[in-house]
Design brief:
39% helix; globular; UDP-galactose 4-epimerase, domain 1; eight-stranded parallel β-sheet; alpha/beta; 11 helices; Rossmann fold; two-stranded parallel ribbon; 10 strands
Length: 277
Amino acid sequence: MIAVSAASGAFGRLVIDQLVARCPAERVVAAVRDPDKAADLATRGLQVRIGDYDRPTTLKDAFRGSDRLLLISSPELNSVRRAEQHRAAIDAAGLADVGSIVYTSFLGADTHADGMTAAHHVTERVLAESGLPHTVLRHPFYSEAFLNEGLHTAVSSGHLIDGTGGRGLNTALRSDLAEAAARILTEDGHSGRAYDFTGSLWTYGQLADALSRISGRPVVIRDRPDRAPGVQGWLEDQIRSGGLERQTADLRDVLGRPSVPLDRAVASLLSAAALGK
């Protein structure tokens, strides 16, 4: 039995899709906060159980009978609270006699305990101290943070705003990371390992070229004169400092194939109909 926590979220659903392609649906447990929002998973034959990070008592029952558990990190923004939720889930996994845990961490969490990595750093230590067999998957930023609906505006205007100073980014699509997680959950030989995942390094210049080729309309780079607001601004700060340029293990090590190319990812987002061609 394979259990997936936070299974009704965007990443969890992608993992579920990959798992049911590899094993019988009835062997997959979807642990969710609200079963009503996962009714479609039940109709596919999955076992849907209440597993709420904010209600630790639900987690033991959600994980019972599982040989492997994919512990998807909580969306909680407060790092202290987030780490407490993860600790409760790991404790519950121990009480439920889960065979092994696969945890979705973040790049750098093994060496840094600040900002994005704070709760992940604590969780990796808790896992190590738990004595439970486990595998750590350190994710980069999702490519979807950059390959989004805003690219339609870039095609229409002919300008792609670049706040990165021309530096490269190591990101990965959720779909590639989900496939990697499903492979690790259904294959042997991964316990005790930690994977630092990224896709291929890419730049906004390459993104502008891809937009031009796919849309048939010229798209050129325009530097952002000021810092972007909110999360986008923080991301751009990270890129400018080289924080998203770290070279790590390519996803092909687990996928057995190259990660999805930039052109294909852009093409799937920018369909001919959406571009008005």
